[in-house]
Known about the structure:
The chain is of the alpha/beta class. It is built from ten helices and nine strands. It has two domains: 50-96 and 183-325, Rossmann fold (3-Layer(aba) Sandwich); 98-177, Putative phosphatase, domain 2 (DNA polymerase, domain 1, Orthogonal Bundle), CATH 1.10.150.
Amino acid sequence: MAAAAAASASSVASSSLVPKKTFSFAPLHASLPVPKFLNGSGRRPSSSSSLRKTGWGSVLVAPSGRKAVVCSSSSSSSSLPLPAALLFDCDGVLVDTEKDGHRISFNETFAERELGVSWDVQLYGELLKIGGGKERMTAYFDKTGWPVKAPKTEEERKEFIASLHKRKTELFMALIEKKLLPLRPGVERLIDEALAKGVKVAVCSTSNEKAVAAIVSFLLGPDKADKITIFAGDVVPRKKPDPAIYLLAAETLGVDPSSCVVVEDSAIGLSAAKAAGMTCIVTKSGYTAEENFVTADAVFDCIGDPPEVRFDLTFCANLLQKQYVS
């Protein structure tokens, strides 16, 4: 399997404990430029608009109740040029891993080290506004105070965080190997369609490369895994919402960013994709359903399998065409 190598990670400091109710992280993507939203009417919807599926495809439903067809895979022209590459986020897109996968593995690691730390479902949802597991732990300890067993110097704390993350990844991979966390609906179908038509496929994630590789290999199988390039972990120095990982993917795959379609599930991932100049479809996940996706090119609850297919490769080609003519 093709996989990219690593670069550097996070910084560390300390503070004192604060009550959980006051614990909050601001989104890191607020300062990024907001690209134009493209839909079937060529207009940008309000933040309260939503995309709903009908028998004809996806429909934009505005607060006024007026509807505008965004795109329909059944009515699209098969002669449209396909995307040069289909780029998937991992957690929340390939597998809904966060609540019952990564969170559980973090907590098991904390318990093993007797750190006196446990992340509940609501708190972990706040922490997901920070891209990357090592960065997530560092920000949490900076905010709430470092455990008594943690070292005192910055360099030692970086090593401490790295060791926690390594153990957390081992525990997470055990869950994946047991296939306790299934692929989301439509993921394998869309990947199969892309590979069959010569579209390059990659996974671009802030998660550890070994964990992402395990998901791809164990859940999609080794034959597909050999055809999928992985960009993950510390392969870039700045993680999402920075566009670095998507720009690296385009450069490595030898494709123009404007010819790529990204499938994301979070606002920080969407910001990264749009800042890279790419078309982005959002498939909402358990933790991200209420996030603001106004800059997305389309939003769905999932990719979908028959008879509930939400979109296919032709739909992706239609979105690219709308970008070119707008």
